[in-house]
Amino acid sequence: MLTKETLELLFNNYSIYKIDDINADYINPADFYNVLNRLVADDSVELAGNSIGGKKIFKIKRGQGKTKILIWTQMHGDEPTATAALLDLLNFLNRQDDFNNLKKKIKENLTISIIPMLNPDGAELFTRENLIGIDINRDALRLQSPEAKILMNEFENFKPDFAFNMHDQNPYYTIENCDKLPAVSFLAPPFDFNCSLNPGRIKSMKLIAELNRLLSFLNAGLTARYKDDHEPRSFGDYFAGRGASVILIESGNTLGPEGKEMIRKLNFLLLLAAFDAIADNSYMNYDEKFYYNIPENKERMYDLILRNLLIEKNNHTYTVDIGIKRTKKFDINKKRFYYISSIEEIGDLSTYYAWEIYNLDGFLLEPLKYYTYKNAATPSNTAMAELLRNGYGFIVGELPSDHSAYTELPVNIAKSYKSQVEPAIGEPANFRLSNEENEYYILINGFIVSGNDLDCLPDLSDKIKNALVYD
């Protein structure tokens, strides 16, 4: 097993192996192919097949040992962290350095088959599903998608002892009933609805317990565990039922400045630690009961919670909390992310947490107004701040825009006037909040900016990432 000292050395030297021209937030397939060609320009790479959109899906072999490990990443196209980490790992295995003994141990004892970016169409579009809307991880039984067939064929032909299913966790999970974010989450998938144990699943639990222990040495983030809910359509559960030891690793989130790049580093270290423990069977020294000591994930997070604000209805006033999520989308033409907000819950959210929380005692929710804009030029930052100060959140006019869904302006664009309605579940968050002391906040597409900010910010893009375009 890796010692604490070796793990810390790998952690501190990670920058040597990191592929700098790949970002953990978004990986374009063309960039991925270019890097892959640099790293595996030999007979260890093979075309496994093509996606629905005709993009290439590769498999890479490393090592010639008895124990077989299958790894796949990005079956969900909007989950790129592990793909970036696997490229870093391939770079590590290619180099000659002070870790040569570890590399030799891995290559002599293991044969590793890697399918990175199983869903290249989804990766390009930054969507969970493939090009025809199938969630590949719900296609293990019907095998309707070519991507699912590629993974199943490799499993059947390679017959792995271990299978690593690499994902990105959505940002709304916390560790059980607290506001702590898991940096990494694990699961030893059950193969039936009784969550039974077989030798393969017990090995998965033992290995996860060892990986959890090693991560604690680094103090680089907290870990969690998914509840043992059986999903027979998923590949992890199906492979576990076939006797493989399946380890689900979900890249979580961190509030630190490195963000997903830190989680990428942890993926790199986790895989190396797992390879080492499997190569010498040291993970078998751990009791599987320690797997159950890892706290469970709970989906108790929002992007924004507005606490204790007032809403009026039929001459009555009510105190409510509002929970808002911002769905991250990718504009393939502009090569940038944008967001669409949604009100997820209204009521008592005292047991929930958020990335941003505002306590709004005494603030009343009001609708935003529409402003008719007759100038063909885009309003200046000063002009838009003035509109927001006066309660306008929608501009009606023929403003230049390259987008059908969103605008880079900090004010929504509307094609026509619409009567304002109360906040509703599933609707975007656009309103004004004010109190009797003339303090106020403006919400545009779920992003909040205070009156004080409007008085001093020359550019609102740091506060309001984007607004929306309404028909």
Describe the structure.
With 471 residues, this protein is α/β, with parallel strands linked by helices. Helices cover 28% and strands 29% of the residues. It has helices spanning 4-17, 29-39, 81-94, 100-109, 120-125, 146-158, 199-218, 235-241, 260-280, 381-389, 451-456; strands at residues 45-50, 56-62, 67-72, 110-115, 162-168, 174-175, 182-187, 222-225, 245-251, 297-298, 301-313, 316-331, 336-347, 353-359, 364-366, 369-372, 392-396, 406-407, 412-414, 431-434, 440-444, 447-450, 467-470. It has an eight-stranded mixed sheet, sandwiched between helices. β20 and β21 form a beta hairpin. α1 crosses α9 (260-280) and α7 crosses α9 (260-280). The longest helix has 21 residues, at 260-280. The protein is elongated.
List keywords for this structure.
28% helix; 8-stranded mixed sheet; 5-stranded mixed sheet; 11 helices; 471 residues
State the separation between the terminal residues, measured CA to CA: 60 Å
Class by alpha and beta content: alpha/beta
How much of the residues is beta strand, in percent? 25-35%
- Strand arrangement, major sheet: 1-2-4-3-5-9-7-8
Number of β-strand runs: 23
Query: Quick one: overall form?
Result: elongated
- The percentage helix is 25-40%
Please give the largest β-sheet.
8 strands, mixed
Individual helix count: 11
Q: Give the averaged pLDDT, no decimals.
A: 93
Alpha-carbon Rg, integer: 25 Å
**Uncertain regions: pLDDT < 50 for 5+ in a row?**
none
Write the layout of secondary structure elements.
Blueprint: H1 4-17, H2 29-39, E1 45-50, E2 56-62, E3 67-72, H3 81-94, H4 100-109, E4 110-115, H5 120-125, H6 146-158, E5 162-168, E6 174-175, E7 182-187, H7 199-218, E8 222-225, H8 235-241, E9 245-251, H9 260-280, E10 297-298, E11 301-313, E12 316-331, E13 336-347, E14 353-359, E15 364-366, E16 369-372, H10 381-389, E17 392-396, E18 406-407, E19 412-414, E20 431-434, E21 440-444, E22 447-450, H11 451-456, E23 467-470
Parallel strand pairs: 3-4, 3-5, 5-9, 7-8, 11-14, 16-17, 17-19, 19-23
Antiparallel strand pairs: 1-2, 2-4, 6-10, 7-9, 11-12, 12-13, 15-20, 18-23, 20-21, 21-22
Helix pairs in contact: 1-9, 3-9, 4-9, 7-9
